[in-house]
Amino acid sequence: MSEHLLAAEAKPWRDETAKPFVRIKGITKKFGDLAAVDDVSLDIYQGELFCLLGGSGCGKSTLLRMLAGFETPTMGSIEIDGQEMSGVGANLRPTNMMFQSYALFPHMSVEKNVAYGLLREGVSKPEAISRTEDMLSLVKLDGFAKRKPHQLSGGQQQRVALARSLIKQPKLLLLDEPLGALDKKLREETQFELIRIQEDLGVTFIVVTHDQEEAMTLSTRIGVMDAGKIVQVGEPRQIYEDPNSKYVADFIGSVNIFDGEVDAAAPDMMRVNTGSGPIMCAPVEGLTANQKLHIAVRPERIHLSRTKVEAANALQGTVDEVAYMGNLSVYRVRLADGRCLKVTAANGLHEENPITWDEEVHISWSAAASTVLTQ
Amino acid sequence: MSKRRFFSGRNFVIAMPNLWLILFFMVPFLVVLKISLAEPRIAIPPYSPLWEWVNGELKWSLNFGNYSYMWEDSLYINAYLSSIKVAAISTLLALFIGYPMAYYIARSPEPRRSILLLLVVLPFWTSFLLRVYAWIGILKTKGILNEVLLWSGIIDEPLIIMQTDVAVYIGIVYTYLPFLILPLYANLVKLDDTLLEASYDLGASRISSFFRITLPLSWPGIVAGSMLVFIPVIGEFVIPTLLGGPDTLMIGKVLWGEYFSNRDWPVASAVAMVMLVVMIIPIMILRSAQNKGAEI
């Protein structure tokens, strides 16, 4: 484990010649007539912490279960470390899974739960015990070996499940909503713990989650799924700043979306006529006059002020709602045409006279902040 | 609120089950205990009173002879041992047949599961006695089973099953199987599938997963089902009488004989008292196993 280069730093997916570690090729899973996973192809590289992100029923868990070997693909193939996986049972794959419910064996102690995989593999008892001890100290559960799962807190159970899934040193660890059952505070701590362990061991992680914040914090790359398909794959920053569709922009973070069409008079100017007036965008190639599209503007890219500001896009409105979140405030600004825009602004310390309800305000953003989405 | 009314709704609710137990368990129990300490008489009732007023004095006569008599005559001890043996073997047989059935039902998809469960309890809709008589028709020398086996050429001469222990085991296992399947099913249906997936994922085969995960987790169900078979079978009287032969020795049969053939109520009562004690032991095991199950 000494000198593996962290995938988070090496970014192998940017290198066209890099060899993917997990190769998913045209995989489809049908339950009856319904395709839970629909022709998904995906390359994942060694040492990555890859997040499959999507709403419930988008097929992300089914994809994970196919990787684990619990479901047989209707079509397509999966390759892990150069080895074709079709026909290989879950018990013979170089993968292990951490279940959403943890699935700890209730009748076994923590130690027996963790050592289970090793003993089934034929590892001798003393060796299994010493490796279990090491693993328990990695997840900071020394001294809990003899406890039963029901005597542990949710966070401790989560770490037992992680230890149990890591003990066989899988080439690929599959995590199904690993932090889903934890409360917010514990979840934040555990996110960094998970990254630390992943980087320590250099194991490739594939994490399924519906929580976009969790995906952003954890992952080297995110694959956004919708209706059985992967809609976009990219680094968190890429997904957030350059979403490729209305769905992704809407799913990741908070966003204002305008529907409009390209101004016929000057298509090169990148002026889009919307219900709230013309909006200027950064130039995008290949657009035609009168083409219908969406404009996405992140709330934090919009500037809010009491005085008029010179900018590519400048509008006026009244503050409908203010939510004070501590570090920032979220404003809902009603425009002349009645639609509300979400705007966030950082809060200063002991700010005097902050913008408040029913105030007339000017809002503005640059052309570059308007992301053009053609689908 | 320092004074609570004696006839409050709360006391009433608590009193009902207690009253029930006193009336229908404690009183009969004490009556049987009393008779077991009396001496047999040819009279109505056929036993001596425990206390009498003789010349204005209360005179007690407790007779422990019935109990010592049971100890001296090997018939009773043999009948107890034989009953326990029959109950134990029947329970094991029922377990081997019932576990796969309960497992299969618990693993079946929903609509089929309800139908299978219905089939398990369906025999209860017919009288128990009728069903035992039906077995006579099947098992007797010129019964359905022998006719079919002879006709198909599997055997050359009829099997003698009726009035043997084999017939008793068939009858008992058949009758008590639902009592084993239902609690086992209730346990197995709760088993979390992801536990088996986790075991499989960690490298265990399906068979090994069954023995390491399913079987230990179904232990409370196994104990509950086995006790529901074992306890009543010890005292079973109808099946050994109807299907068994003269050699089939079971305490229920002995008890019947003492009461109705010998009309020796005191000895019969003593037999019943000892049987109760014998059966309390497995009930205690059941209770402790259930408490253990509740922990998991």
Kindly summarize this structure in a few lines:
The complex is a heterodimer of chains A (375) and B (296). Chain A is built from nine helices and 20 strands. Chain A is α+β, with helices and mostly antiparallel strands.
Core attributes:
heterodimer; A: 375 residues; alpha+beta; Rossmann fold; OB fold (Dihydrolipoamide Acetyltransferase, E2P); 5-stranded antiparallel β-sheet; 9 helices; B: mainly alpha; MetI-like fold; two-stranded antiparallel ribbon; 72% helix; 3% strand
Topology:
The complex is a heterodimer of chains A (375) and B (296).
Chain A: H1 7-10, E1 22-31, E2 34-44, E3 49-53, H2 60-68, E4 75-80, E5 83-84, E6 95-98, H3 110-121, H4 125-138, H5 154-166, E7 172-176, H6 184-201, E8 204-209, H7 212-218, E9 221-226, E10 229-234, H8 236-241, H9 246-251, E11 256-262, E12 271-274, E13 277-280, E14 292-297, E15 303-305, E16 313-324, E17 328-335, E18 340-346, E19 360-365, E20 371-373
Parallel strand pairs in A: 3-8, 3-9, 6-7, 7-8
Antiparallel strand pairs in A: 1-2, 1-4, 4-5, 9-10, 11-12, 11-14, 12-13, 14-20, 15-19, 16-17, 16-19, 17-18
Helix pairs in contact in A: 3-4, 3-5, 4-5
Chain B: H1 9-36, E1 51-54, E2 57-60, H2 65-72, H3 74-107, H4 110-121, H5 128-139, H6 144-152, H7 165-188, H8 193-201, H9 206-217, H10 219-234, H11 238-243, H12 251-261, H13 265-295
Antiparallel strand pairs in B: 1-2
Helix pairs in contact in B: 1-13, 2-13, 3-7, 3-10, 7-10, 8-9, 10-13, 12-13
Describe the overall structure.
The complex is a heterodimer of chains A (375) and B (296). Chain A has 375 residues and is of the alpha+beta class. Chain A folds into 2 domains: 7-94 and 170-248, P-loop containing nucleotide triphosphate hydrolases (Rossmann fold, 3-Layer(aba) Sandwich), CATH 3.40.50; 254-373, Nucleic acid-binding proteins (OB fold (Dihydrolipoamide Acetyltransferase, E2P)), CATH 2.40.50.140. Helices cover 24% and strands 32% of the residues of chain A. Chain A has a 6-stranded mixed beta sheet with strand order 6-7-8-3-9-10, sandwiched between helices. A 5-stranded antiparallel beta sheet of chain A has the order 13-12-11-14-20. The relative contact order of chain A is 0.11. The mean pLDDT of chain A is 90. Chain B has a single domain, classed as Orthogonal Bundle (MetI-like fold). Chain B has helices spanning 9-36, 65-72, 74-107, 110-121, 128-139, 144-152, 165-188, 193-201, 206-217, 219-234, 238-243, 251-261, 265-295, and strands at residues 51-54, 57-60. Chain B has a two-stranded antiparallel ribbon with strand order 1-2. The longest helix of chain B has 34 residues, at 74-107. Chain B is globular, with a radius of gyration of 25 Å. The two termini of chain B are 40 Å apart. The model of chain B has no long low-confidence stretch (mean pLDDT 89).
